[in-house]
Amino acid sequence: MRRRIPLAFVAALACAAGDAEAACPTSEPILGPLTCSSVASGRLLYTDTSSSLGGAYTSGNSYQCSTGDIATGTSQEDVYEFSCAFDGTVTLEVSGLDCDLDFFVLESSCDPDPDCIGDSIAVGASDTTVNFSCVAGDVYYIVVEGYGFTQPASYPFQCSGASEGDYTLSFDTTPGGACGEDCGNGLDDDSDGYIDCGDPDCTPEPECVTDADGDGYDGVVYGGTDCDDTRASVNPGATEICDSLDNDCDGTTDEASASGAPTWYRDADGDSYGNASSTTRACTQPSGYVSNSTDCDDTRSTIYPGASETCDGYDNDCDGATDESGGSTWYRDADGDGYGTSTSTTVSCSAPSGYVSNSSDCNDSDAAISPADPEICNSVDDDCDGSTDESGGSTWYADADSDGYGEAASTRVSCSMPTGYVSNSTDCNDRSSTVHPGATEYCNGTDDDCDGSTDEAGAADESTWYRDADGDGYGLTSSSTRACDLPTGYSATSGDCNDAEADSYPGNTEVCDGIDNDCDARTDESGGTSWYADTDGDGYGNASVATVSCTAPSGYVSVSTDCDDSDSAVYPGAPEYCNGADDNCDGTTDESTAVDATTWYADDDGDTYGDPLSTRVGCSAPSGYVDNADDCYDGDASVRPGGTETADGVDEDCDGGVDEGTSAYDDDGDGWSEDGGDCDDTRASARPGAAETCDGADEDCDGLVDEGTSCSDDDGDGVTEDGGDCNDGDASVSPEIAEVAENGVDDDCDGAVDSGIYDPDFDGYTVAGGDCGESDATTFPGATELPDGVDNDCDGLVDEGTVASDDDGDGFSENDGDCNDADPEVNPSATELTNGVDDDCDGMIDQGGPTTDDDGDGFSENAGDCDDSDAAIGPASAEVPNGLDDDCDEQIDEGTEDVDGDGYAVADGDCDDSDGWANPGLAEHCGDEIDNNCNGEIDEGCGLDTGVKQDTGGGVCGGCNSRPAGHSAVALLLGLVALTLRRRST
Hints:
By secondary structure, the chain is mainly beta. Among the domains are: 7-172, Jelly Rolls (Sandwich); 330-386, no CATH class; 895-986, no CATH class. The protein contains 3 helices and 28 strands. It has helices at 7-15, 112-115, 967-985, and strands at 31-34, 40-43, 55-58, 74-82, 88-95, 102-107, 116-119, 128-134, 140-145, 166-172, 263-266, 275-281, 289-290, 328-332, 341-348, 355-356, 394-398, 407-414, 421-422, 463-467, 476-483, 490-491, 529-533, 542-549, 556-557, 598-602, 611-618, 625-626. The strands form 8 sheets. Strands 1, 3, 4, 6, 7 and 9 form a 6-stranded mixed β-sheet that branches. Strand 23 and strand 24 (542-549) form a beta hairpin. The two termini are 81 Å apart. Residues 1-25, 48-61, 66-74, 111-115 and 944-986 have low confidence and may be disordered.
């Protein structure tokens, strides 16, 4: 893996220890020059002379960046000269090392200070790279030096063998650098828009053939002008022909000037014949042009060779002659009236003198006779319609009833008066001879005299009417009028004795009102009202204690419906209470409508908790009902408030949650249930993949406690980090271990490396000990990896195990939302499974699966919920008429249909939907042994125990002891009436 080393850091390492200078030019040979495509291999030997490439020189005369590395003796070096073609970054690669060689780069000068810009951090046989900024044309010196030759024999990377000291130098030509184009790798290495031989950089390269088709022109990809280097017939010097190719490379294909391009003729009128005077040349037929030039008029589409000749003043068929055939038939008009005779004709394109285009004249010798002339009374067919004197003359009016008066709407015009017609039009009804102007008016609903009024005053047979001011049907004899019809406020009968009082007229019943009601000259002589004793003063009287008079005696009332005149709280319409008394006198005691009646809830499963969807109201509890509505599912006695929750997808304790407290439920909300692997479902900090802390608990559920923390002895050397272990991942490093000389490690954790070897960042490791960041105290072997983009623990990996790293390789780090970065199957894009795990990291487990109650109705799919996306559908829901299986019993709308047709379904409270005499809208009927009103009681209030038969108001059977005859028909009628009333009330 290549590492890019910051230039400032490299320069600081290279130049910190000294500033040795070398003469320039030097006595050392300069190798090269190197280019970006160069690969240089060499070997530095530990002898008085180096390889054949370079040589051995004293430290004072070498290209060193630091005299501290070699204080005395000789230095083995190879020096290369390099310059780049482009400005940018150059990456120099050193590989093939088998011992410790250093190398560095001098910038444009032999003086390494301050121009030393690169230094190796190679150790042993490690490959490495140096990046440096290159200015095009500047000279750089690359020095490879035998650093390992000066090290003690104990140094693990000492260069000592005769075959050691090998190295290879090469350049990284990754796109964007300053190393130019690699002419054979198919990449735009220098990012200038040209690839390989198409790049001007590669023009001198022998492998770049620029004229592939041998036509004498280089291809455009090589900087030439040949637009198609695969065809010798295509080049800038070729002749353009009609072949769909750009033969002459001018950017245009088959242009009009192409050799052999045909001539086309303009066809402006679209008749497929062209104009010889309007032409163009093109390889393909242009729009609006044709290949022939024989049109004699290109402005009219009806004119072309072969067209039909017509009388239009044009040479239609292009034969040089005009209107030579065709024409119309013309008729002789001898009398000049514009109408011709069919007996004299001629044919031509235009009308000859004395001829017209029509032949409708019936007399061509008289200009006053033609289809345009009016008919007059002269015994001649003036208008040539075949009839004589059929129009003209006088207007006559039909007199159908022969009363001498005609009807204006029925007329004839003729030269003489027709039979049944007269000369006047004043009759208003020509169907009655008694109706005409001047006739006698009668009261018959007819305007007899045709004056515009009907039955007006003065009619011969009008009647006498009497004034009836009070509207009682009797008028005053002294006040009358005459008219055909009864006027408003009048009567045909007289004899009223008081026309200001509507209750006073002959024959009326005398009542107690101080008026002579019957007009017999006496007042209140008969009549009166029955009054009933009201002992308890509740406004309702006792029917057995009564008297009759025109006014109420003291202590009496007009109502006789009190069923207990000793109790003022008992009367018709009084509030009914649950007290054993008939408070409202309806014959029923403690009915379900009592003010203080209780709502009872069905307890079908017998768990003492009621179903809020199934109720009855009454003074006492019906069998199977309780006074609470706390049951969330009345089909299972184990489901109730306080029930024991089990992992079955049911809300057994009716608290709104499903399976909580069981192994299938994520009780601590950490995304894991016990079934999914949570080892402590009471703490959100404990789950698979959680971070381990020093708390004596197994937080990541791997069976280990506190591993990887400062209080754990992870390397088994008997000492924790809290106890002073400075690398708890290496059992050979701890306060109990003796310091090992010259290994670059603080083995005994005392803060010093190798008994005093300089450790720049004081982290207990030097480069020799494996420190991969000697200026960073957070970077050393065994260090804690941090999310900082650095290989803190020097294991070749960056940020592994931190929130910034995708440790399980699923494409998400913890920073990206991965809630378990140790499991590639758990991440924000994963599919949620039924496994007790928050697979998609949304904070919920198993949602959408068969074990989860997704709609919150207390049931999962496994527990019987047939639609877990709708809280209104589930085993505890009520069936409603909506075409759905609301209660998940595999039946649709059951119980919601009205089987017996009485207006009530089971869902509406019908207690027997097979019997129309049982529904909540009926009153109880006595003696039929049916719960008619569906209140849970039979024949209540009928007094059957005393032998008294009462009808409580049903009104159908009138107190009968058995079901009435015609039961089915009556029940159906009652059902329809009840349904109508219910619908009106909604």
